[in-house]
Amino acid sequence: MRGRALVALLALAGCSSEPPPPAPKPTARATPAPRPTPSPRVLRPGQLPTPELDGAVSVTGTWSAKPGAATFSDEQGIVFAIRCDRSGRQILLSRGPFEGDSIRLFTDDAAATFPAQMVDGALEAAVSTGQTFLDALAKAERFGITSGKTPVLQVPGNKAIGAVVRGCRPAGR
After folding, report:
1. Residue 66's closest CA among 164, 136, 166, 150?
2. Could you say which of 9, 100, 106, 172 is the most buried, measured as most Cβ atoms within 10 Å of its Cβ?
3. Where is this region: Disordered (predicted)?
4. How many domains does the chain have?
5. What percent of the chain has pLDDT over 90?
């Protein structure tokens, strides 16, 4: 008898006059991640999308070269310079007259950031002659350069860059 009473109590305990709690309200769906905007230019095999270059200000100017150095200048002065420091076994990249603690460069297939310091009014980075980014820079049809919080400037490439890089490397490299 005791067993039946216990079962009856348990059965009654399961019954309740209270309404069930309301179902939880559906939560808002997570917003899908934005899709990257495709590059406005047609990419050739091996090229990477370069949003830094796609939005860069194109600089008009001229290249000048002498043995071991090449300079790109516009009407305001030197925008970019590359020169060989053979005794230091390095290549010096300059951007002037801007401030910052690094020089960032972008090509169609590579990007690099180099620590820099002010030298004679220009921001200068010393790069090892074996730095592989120099190969990308040497063959680039265009490249971007920036330092600090300045906008990326798009500079046309030039064969003189490759001549400086090849001329500064030890023979056979």
Report:
1. 164
2. 106
3. 14-51
4. 1
5. 41
